[in-house]
Specification:
By secondary structure, the chain is an alpha+beta fold. The chain is built from two helices and three strands; from the N terminus they run ββααβ. The two termini are 18 Å apart.
C-alpha cells in the first residue's frame, strides 16, 4: 500500500504519492517550504495520509 498526501492550502491542488510515510514526509515538507514558505510537522503529515494502491507511487507530484 502506498500513501498519498494532498495539500489543503487555499488555491493549491498539489498532491503527492509515495511508497510509505518515510518517503512522503520530505516531499511534502519540500512543497510546503518552497511553495508556501511554511513548515509542516511530520506528525501532521502522517495524520492525514491516505492509503492508495501500490503501483501509483511516483515520488513526484501528479
Ligand atoms: Zn500546496
Amino acid at each position: 500500500m502506498a500513501v498519498r498526501w494532498s495539500c489543503v492550502e487555499a488555491g493549491c491542488d498539489w498532491a503527492v504519492t509515495a511508497a510509505d510515510a518515510d518517503a512522503i514526509v520530505p516531499l511534502v515538507q519540500a512543497h510546503i517550504g518552497e511553495i508556501h514558505s511554511s513548515f509542516e510537522l511530520e506528525d501532521m503529515i502522517e495524520a492525514v495520509l491516505e492509503d492508495v494502491p501500490d503501483g501509483r507511487a511516483s515520488g513526484a507530484a501528479d
